[in-house]
UniProtKB/TrEMBL annotation, chains A, B:
Record-annotated Acyl-coenzyme A oxidase N-terminal domain positions: 2-93
Protein name, UniProt field: Acyl-coenzyme A oxidase
Cofactor(s) the protein needs: FAD
Family under the similarity heading: Belongs to the acyl-CoA oxidase family.
Length: 641, 641
């Protein structure tokens, strides 16, 4: 943080005023500086990523670091690495990862770019047969990358061996010109992430040496013989790792919005004065505002606990995979798909609602939320579209329920053990939630029970729907999404329970423990209330219990209110990074709004005395009646212009 | 449409590339042209607004036309109108409406700007005592307006008579300079609406003549005597009118996103090929996508029918008010508050989900959704913050329930007549929904019954909560929001029923009637499913019925799918206005994406051969190893950069 805070090249005071081109070029200067800092401070890859994140803006080499190099390390053979990796590590070549096409994203098998072997010259011929085959959305491709990992269908003698990665030079290292046979464009403005040059690329019979196919796993020999890859189970792990990262990131992004909104809503005062001579109440004292803000703070903690647990599970998985033990794989894949989907969805929804909670001022860029939100939005789409991902989770759960049907409940995983309840359907149908008082709502077992019952029930319903005549798997996408959501809410509840039973929780002061327990109960009551239909539908939760949940939710909001600002600030976001007039740590929200707006270019340097340059051309002729002469009809008061 | 489509000044091909300043100045040229067109074609006020909307971008005079002139017409005395109105109608003065302050929006009584009478000079002294008193968000104030209606506390001899409107000159008609005693700035970039110069303004003992107070209702005489306004009930009508407009607008905006998304999702193909040699399925054939899109189309119709009914009620109200009959006033105020809140909320939520539905490409500005969405977003905040508004509705419903308690059910309004059910609490508690088959779900009476029961129940619960010890009105904001939502859903259902029983519906072809009935049933099932907890909580809707709803919903999606594109297109949005590569009427989504991106400034005119201007400064030094020299550690394969 100190490096970016003190170096003027990372200055962000003009962030909200720059158009796309200026912001992009400024990003490139920042990118160069990042590389210089690496050499000055001998930074590790991890440090570099951290530094880039502290500058809070994408630079094109982000994808070089996070996708291009890891792919070389993972998929290139040792000889290939010896040839390319040092140059990549030194940024003497700048890479990107070109997989998605204009016509295909999620369905990898639909990719159309071909790499056809020409035996006579020992080369691959890369080609884009249709417009829909164009590589699209490729970060760093548009203007900066010199090389790409291109994913293309590998074809030998007319036989298609499926998608494989190739190392492809794009631009001359001499003058940066795109090589003949390739067409590249930047894809233009996006909702956010506009410092990234996402690119479009088409190949026209473009040739690269046979050795440029990444050959750590699959191989093609000089005489054109294709050798299938030995399956690399560790690759599954990598996908999981990225998804865990997104769960943690969704907690962080939500907390960033919580910090800004909570601070501002504690500063702003609005509403009827009920006590004579008192000031207006803080907006954060309105119950509706508490209802919109405090559960979001609770979610940041719940998601963080979930991310921590997922990282520990990931480590365990990788240890097992290294020993060729694949027991955990399907389970981890299932919940990490669902949790990526669920957590990014509620995080993005939460950030936007926190912005709206700030009323009119939340709509100003100076509120500090819109800019990072716009850039974070695609987390709901990339690394698996959020609705598609839920099908992975649901498919796995249907397999698990089969274990129950086969009398093999003992083979259920820890996260799906609740399906055991379905062994006795009639008992299951008679189950009722045994909560009777507010105190019961703090009981970890009772809390887990309600999520477990609901998850088991919706999975059983999906199973039943699947068995209906004429129903295909793709008819059940809506039900699958419901099932995945239910399973994920159960796992998050489990993670909260693990945390509250952990040594690190035990080390907290009693007062902090009380606050944290309250916050987690608030998380649960809010979650239950939002999906209430799922819990009451079969009578498991009664009308009396619903009323209890609503009443306790209200009383918890009041109880947590005094700690709201502290809880919202606990992530420790520095002011530099928040870049928010309304959410700065000193609480000078209005003063900072005015400081910010004085930097607006329309307020500066246009003409003398703040008169805009269009005045002579556009305003003066109207005001002087030189254009658009028109006489109002003589009808007295009229709403005719 | 033809006027804006053919005049090059309204060209929109560069819309998504312009930075704020360029876009603002371009808007001013468009504004001047609008005024010229008024004179060329002798356009009415209504035509002018239509023309501005067809150009699909705010211009500063939008507020002159929609706020400044109507306020003069409504609040200025006849003499004042004679003095100012013609100049305003001719755009020789340019006005804005300055009410909101940096510290106060919703709570009007908290406004701090003062207008103090100086008897000796017969002047008002306008003053902003604190930074929080600064006028803020005032559209057209920042750079363009010459005059403002300023809302300020009227003070005579130390006595505060509350907020009143004043006619205030801001800038010289000679050179457009801001007069001494006033400080004005543009407030800087916002999420959207950046062609509007929203402004900041502070007064420092700024003097205007006493006659500049708008004196149609309240008056102050030469000797400083304040005369209270005769209450103008028609003013309530105006507020209602604006809210009805927002309901209709929320239907239109949602339909705009539906048109774009539905077209694109019918063009794009993705997913497993189930029939040999077939193409991939259209994305719109995925059930999950249908579930996200088709109910949104249904909502556009439901909201439109609601808006049409609201306009007819508004006319009725105005006729009655003209005869001093205020019977309808409270009812109309209650539902128009709630419906403005409910419809803008679901419209904005729907637009953003439709964008996400389009996957990665939805994130491109060329999708055509992000730009208009960003500008439409504040509809959830202005004309009454959406959550605050629900309290108005809830308060009214509590008054209506009192009628029931007093045995005066006959005095209930048409929209609240359902509260009559509460006369017999024990009968009410035993009510069960009598739906037994899919066919019953089309029965208008049964559909109304489920909304009516639920609305009555949550209102009764709010009443009970209010009677608990120690519970104040502001503790019930969450419950109020729930009550308002329930009431609004009932009214929308009523409006749908009115429409399906109307003559205009009867005139449709039988085939169209079938489609429309299906669509409205889809609307209901989707609405019920989303709020299921509210309907099942007290057992009114059974688990069997929930299962039925879900199954029928799925089957309706399949039934409506063939008509989806036709229904989504029925608003007839012209391509010019949509400005969407993905949603254009010819379905050439990918071709148009490429046409659009070729206009990106980074792809043009930076240097020869598409090499960006930062290459020499930022990229070449890295590629040539001139900066940031660094040697990777000798550890072989490593993820150290």
């Amino acid at each position: 943080m100190r490096l970016v805070e003190t170096d003027p090249i990372f200055d962000r005071s003009d962030r909200y005023f720059l158009g796309r081109s200026e912001r992009f070029h400024k990003g490139l200067r920042r990118m160069r500086r990042l590389v210089e800092l690496r050499s000055e401070y001998n930074l590790s890859a991890h440090d570099m990523i951290t530094l880039q994140q502290a500058s809070d803006e994408y630079v094109p080499i982000y994808l070089h670091m996070s996708m291009f190099i890891p792919t070389l390390e993972g998929q290139a053979s040792d000889e290939q690495q010896a040839k390319w990796l040092t140059a990549a590590l030194q940024f003497r070549i700048l890479g990107c990862y070109a997989q998605t096409e204009l016509g295909h994203g999620s369905n990898l098998s639909g990719l159309e770019t071909t790499a056809t072997l020409d035996r006579s010259t020992d080369e691959w011929i890369l080609h884009s047969p249709h417009l829909s085959s164009a590589k699209f959305w490729i970060g760093a491709l548009g203007k900066t990358a010199t090389h790409a990992i291109v994913v293309a269908k590998l074809i030998i003698d007319g036989r298609d061996h499926g998608a494989h990665p190739f190392f492809v030079p794009l631009r001359s290292l001499e003058d940066h010109k795109v090589f003949p046979g390739i067409v590249i464009h930047d894809i233009g403005p996006k909702v956010g992430a506009n410092t990234m040059d996402n690119g479009f690329m088409m190949f026209k019979q473009y040739r690269i040496p046979r050795e440029n196919m990444l050959m750590r796993y699959a191989r093609v020999s000089r005489d054109g013989v294709y050798t299938k890859p030995i399956h690399d189970k560790l690759a599954y792990g990598a996908m999981t790792y990225v998804r865990v990262g997104l769960v943690v990131e969704s907690a962080e992004l939500l907390s960033r919005a919580c910090t800004i909104a909570t601070r501002y809503l504690a500063v702003r005062r609005q509403g009827p004065v009920t006590v004579p001579n008192a000031r207006e109440p803080q907006v954060l004292d309105h119950l509706m505002v508490q209802y919109r803000v405090l559960p979001r703070i609770a979610q940041t903690y719940a998601l963080r606990f979930t991310g921590m647990w997922m990282y520990s599970m990931y480590d365990k998985l990788m240890q097992q995979l290294a020993q060729n033990n694949v027991n955990m794989l399907a389970d981890v894949h299932a919940y990490s798909s669902g949790l990526k989907s669920y957590t990014t969805t509620i995080s993005m929804e939460g950030i936007e609602d926190l912005r709206k909670c700030m009323g009119g001022h939340g709509y100003s860029m100076f509120s500090g939320i819109p800019d990072f939100y716009a850039t974070a939005l695609p987390t709901t789409t990339y690394e698996g579209e959020n609705y598609l991902l839920t099908q992975q989770t649901a498919k796995y759960l249907l397999k698990q329920i089969e274990l129950v049907r086969q009398g093999r409940s003992d083979a259920l995983s820890t996260t799906t053990d609740y399906l055991r309840q379905l062994v006795e359907p009639s008992l299951f149908a008679q189950q009722r939630w045994s909560v009777q008082s507010a105190r019961d709502l703090d009981d970890a077992n009772l809390v887990l029970a309600v999520y477990a019952h609901r998850a088991a029930r919706v999975i059983r319903e999906l199973e039943a729907a699947k068995q209906e005549d004429g129903v295909a798997w793709h008819d059940l996408q809506v039900e699958s999404a419901r099932v995945s959501r239910a399973h994920c809410q159960y796992i998050i509840a489990q993670c909260i329970a693990y945390y509250l039973a952990s040594k690190s929780f035990a080390r907290l002061s009693p007062a902090t423990q009380t606050v944290m327990r309250r916050l987690m109960t608030l998380y649960h009551l809010y979650t239950l209330e939002r999906d209430m239909g799922d819990f009451t539908e079969d009578g498991y939760v009664s009308a009396m219990q619903v009323a209890l949940i609503r009443r306790e939710l209200r009383s918890l909001l009041r109880a947590i209110r005094p700690d709201a600002v502290g809880l919202a600030e606990s992530y420790g976001w520095p002011d530099f990074l928040l870049n928010s007039a309304l959410g700065s740590s000193d609480g000078r929200a209005y003063e900072r709004m005015v400081e910010h707006l004085q930097r607006e270019p329309l307020n500066n340097g246009e003409m003398d005395d703040g008169v805009i340059r269009s005045y002579r051309e556009c305003l003066r002729p109207l005001i002087r009646g030189e254009v658009g002469q028109w006489t109002p009809p003589e009808t007295g008061r009229s709403s005719k212009l």
